Amino acid sequence: MRYLLLVSHGTFAPGLRSVLDMLVGSRDDILSCSMEDGMGADAFIGALEETIEPVGVDDSVFVFGDVIGGSPLTNALNKLAEKGLLPRVTAFGGMNLPMILTAAVESDSDDAALITQILDEGKASIRLVEIDLGDDDGEEDL
Question: Over the stretch 57-74, which tens digit does the pLDDT of each residue have?
């Protein structure tokens, strides 16, 4: 099985997980863990160990972190390495909803193709939204 593991500071990872549950339904292959405000490293690691408990030696894991080099992503990679899973781990930093959604809905794709799709979707979703304010005649369009 391929697991998606979302890790973050604050409640970003559980929030993304909640949105995924709304869009694709609740699934056992999508896991999340966050380092909440005031939580020490030991408490986060304990929660992370509990979160990744179902991941077995034959499974692969796509790990999505909010910040490259941040404590949640670094600790997740360390814990997966301790379980002997690092060769079966693909890690992404700077996660966003389109990336996670692509990973969830394209779960049957092979890893190489899916990695490309995830990165392309994540990059394509970040752009400036231009707002057309219309003409300047003083009238507002609602």
Answer: 999 999 999 999 999 999
Question: Does the domain at residues 2-96 carry the CATH identifier 3.30.70.1530?
Answer: no
Backbone angles phi, psi at 4, to 5 degrees: -110, 120
Cα separation, 110 vs 79, whole angstroms: 25
Token duo for residue 78: 């360390």
Residues 6+ away with beta carbon under 8 Å from 97: 16, 19, 125
Phi, psi angles (nearest 5°) of residue 5:
-115, 115
Q: How far is CA 52 from the centre of its chain?
A: 14
Question: Is the per-residue pLDDT at 141 higher than 60?
Answer: no
Sorted by where each begins, the domain ranges of the chain are 2-96
- What predicted TM-score, i.e. pTM, was given to this entire model? 0.90
